[in-house]
Amino acid sequence: MRTGRPSKRPRTPFGQRVHAAREALGLSQAEVAAQLGINQASYGAWERDPVALRPEQVRQLAKTLKVSIEHLYGDSPAKPRSGPVGKLRRVFEDVSRLPRQRQQHILRVVEDLLTAQRLNGHGKSH
Predict the structure, then answer these.
(1) Which of 1.10.8.590, 1.10.260.40, 3.30.9.10, 1.20.1270.50 is the CATH number of 13-72?
(2) Cβ-contact 36, 22 below 8 angstroms
(3) Is the whole-model pTM more than 0.85?
(4) What is the pLDDT of residues 39-70, one digit of tens each?
(5) Distance (Å, whole) CA 56 – CA 61
(6) What is d(CA 36, CA 71) in angstroms, rounded to the nearest whole number?
(7) 36 and 60 in contact (C-beta within 8 Å)?
(8) Of 88, 18, 28, nearest to 58 (Cα)?
(9) What pLDDT, on a 0 to 100 scale, did the predictor assign at position 27?
(10) Residue 41 phi/psi, 5° resolution?
(11) Maximum Cα–Cα distance for the chain, whole Å?
(12) Domain parsing of the chain, residue ranges
């Protein structure tokens, strides 16, 4: 999922990894900036320009983007992701934090919706 307009200048290797991690989560720069407690323009610079971040900022950024600090600095490969992406992944993560009984209720509702879609001929793969 591509968000926003492309940068007019090449990103630093750090900025490329930050950008890729944000895109993999389907988040906008503004959404990440809000989670970090900074404005979008400041966060945008982190993706575009050489920056010197404080250790706490790096820890918070890695946590927000769900990657390791080592990954941000290119010391480890990104873990291959499986399953849903973007907003769907966030919804599943939210559901996973609910009590088991609530999870089962949501699962039954989703399964019923999928069954109804298949019966109506809308569940065909493309």
Answers:
(1) 1.10.260.40
(2) no
(3) no
(4) 999 999 999 999 899 999 999 999 999 999 99
(5) 8
(6) 18
(7) yes
(8) 18
(9) 93
(10) -65, -40
(11) 55
(12) 13-72, 86-119
